[in-house]
Design goal:
The chain is of the alpha/beta class. The protein is 46% helix and 15% strand. The strands form two sheets. Strands 5, 6, 7, 8, 9, 10, 11 and 12 form an eight-stranded mixed β-sheet that branches. A four-stranded antiparallel β-sheet has the order 2-3-1-4, with helices on one face. The protein is globular, with a radius of gyration of 23 Å.
Length: 426
């Protein structure tokens, strides 16, 4: 399949149909040559990062919008504009390949229109670009509700957060200390001439200077290393698991944190629970590659009585369902799939899960509440409310007025993440 046509179809699936990029992109990659996968990903991620700007330009260039069955060709135009505006592809090649995409999408009669639109953009590019960024949506590439949330919650940092969200995410590795120390593994990277930097806090984290295919990583297939953002790796530091304990990883898929707990301990029983049976397949896959074992359960965290009859847990890691507003740079579709109304519903769900999990924790046990969100409702305000209604809960390591730790996107090149450590008093 023509790569531009594949990209247009991905944008159509995400923007018009509401499918996630993580679902639509792999499906599209199966239709093109492997050597074109990176190009397809670049176009799709980039177009979603700057969607309002591209839409603004397209609307200026077209008298009548493409609707109904022609909507995918609207997205093909966005693909063309993105290439001409942001990529180093020669303009004649970008236009020609995009126009060629009309044949793949069974709309050759629209080739003249798309060719004319893209050439009009090239002719008036400076003026059109300037007009496209004259409004907030085009300038910042975020929907108004996220922009408002960032400005109100982080008045001194919101512009840096916008910039971080619109940047390309780095590739972080997590060394499996059951096989190597981090120092030992970096020697293997040096032997392969792979450049890297180390994280100052996450003891197993290595950032690659440039992302690469995992097959190029020494020992990846043997379980020596995994791909996981440094912020997510900090979960084990806050959980502080000990050998021989009974530990629950709640909302565990795709299993990175489950594996990290097991990599840090011996003779530890780890239970990994998630309600999404398809995503649990990834937990099994990760554990198999890493040669680790956990009790994997499909169940609803709000109703533990339906899936757990064993002892109460020494430690619980609750990586709660959230808005994922801290990982927009990795999932730019979040900006267009999430709604402001989702936050209240998610906060209510998080509250229910926290209460249910608290009853499964031993006295003296530790629960780490975590999200990959940066909204106060899901994080600081959520933990404050929990502490107010839970008499035997004590906050550890932070101020009650500003509970937990909010990591912001771009901080030491990490994703946005939140952690709060809670101990159950006798």
């Amino acid at each position: 399949m023509n790569v531009r046509a594949a990209a247009a179809n991905v944008l159509f699936q995400v923007v018009d149909k509401g499918h996630s990029l993580s679902h639509a992109l792999p499906a599209a990659q199966k239709t093109i040559r492997p050597r074109d996968h990176a190009l397809l990903q670049e176009i799709c991620y980039g177009a979603l990062r700057y969607l309002p700007r591209l839409e603004s330009i397209a609307n200026e260039l077209m008298e009548n919008p493409l609707k109904g069955k022609k909507r995918v060709f609207h997205h093909l135009i966005l693909v063309g504009i993105y290439q001409l505006s942001f990529m180093r592809i020669p303009s004649h090649a970008a236009v020609a390949e995009t126009v060629e995409g009309t044949k793949t999408l069974r709309g050759p009669s629209l080739s003249g229109l798309i060719n004319a639109v893209l050439r009009s953009y090239l002719r008036d590019q400076e003026e059109l670009d300037e007009k496209a960024v004259s409004h907030n949506a085009g300038k910042y590439g975020h929907p108004s509700w996220i922009l408002k949330m960032l400005q109100e919650s982080y008045p001194d940092q919101w512009e840096q957060l916008i910039e971080a969200n619109n940047s390309k995410a780095p590739m972080w590795l997590r060394v499996n200390r059951q096989h190597h120390t981090r120092d030992e593994y970096v020697e293997l990277l040096k032997n392969e001439n792979i450049e890297y930097t180390l994280h100052s806090e996450a003891a197993d984290a290595i950032k690659l200077a440039s992302p690469c295919d995992v097959t190029l990583l020494p020992g990846f297939d043997k379980g020596w290393v995994s791909v996981q953002d440094a912020a997510a790796q900090l979960s084990v530091d806050y959980l502080t698991p000990k050998d021989g304990e009974l530990i629950l990883d709640c909302c565990a898929a795709p299993g990175g944190k489950t594996a990290h707990i097991l990599e840090h301990t011996n003779d530890t029983e780890v239970v990994a629970i998630d309600c999404d049976v398809k995503r649990l397949d990834r937990v099994y896959d990760n554990l198999e590659r890493l040669q680790l074992r956990a009790d994997v359960i499909c169940g609803d965290a709000r109703y533990p009585e339906e899936w757990w009859m064993g002892d109460k847990f020494d430690r619980i890691l609750l990586d709660a369902p959230c808005s994922a507003t801290g990982v927009i740079r990795r999932h730019p579709d979040i900006k267009w799939l999430r709604r402001a109304s989702d936050i209240e519903a998610l906060a209510e769900l998080q509250s229910e899960i926290m209460d249910a999990m608290w009853h499964q924790l031993k006295e003296g046990g530790t629960m780490v509440y975590a999200t990959c969100s940066i909204t106060p409702q899901e994080n600081v305000l959520q933990v404050k409310a929990f502490l107010e209604r839970t008499e035997n809960a004590t906050l550890v390591g932070s101020d009650i007025e500003n509970p937990g730790r909010q990591i912001l996107p771009g901080e030491e090149d990490m994703d946005g993440f939140y952690y709060a450590v809670l101990v159950k008093q006798a």
